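Appendix B, record 7
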Amino acid sequence: MFNSVFCLKSVLVKMLSSTALLLSLTGCVATAPVPQDPLVNQLDGPMAQLQFDTKQLYQRLQKLTADKSCQQDQQCKILGIGSKACGGPEQFIVYSEQSTDGKMLAITSERYAKLKKEQQSRLGMMSTCQQLVTPVASCQASKCVMIDVQ
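Structure tokens (predicted):
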């Protein structure tokens, strides 16, 4: 009986040793590096920071222009933001002069456009060079709205 228990114990120890060896070897297997998209590599480091800063400024523009309350059309304004590769704004936002810090909006918008230009330059981006038609701002139901002019 003692001999069979010893034999069983010996077999279990060998099995566990083999399993441990197999597990440690699988962790050492070298894998070929997966080729990455060049754009993904460019988004590392400074480019990632640029992307983050651009997003933060866009969110800041949204917050600055969130209160669109107005009493008359003259209080509603349109601002072109961002920058297309060929020039001109990438989009327009509407805001109320009554409830928006105009100086802060101008500074933030200028910085956002500068970062968008830098981003396009670094990534070699191009655009269709189609210029956007500036919409008209109007006060409707006590809120500034953008009206497309076509």
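Remarks on this record: The chain has four helices and four strands. The helical segments are 2-26, 38-42, 46-64, 102-123.
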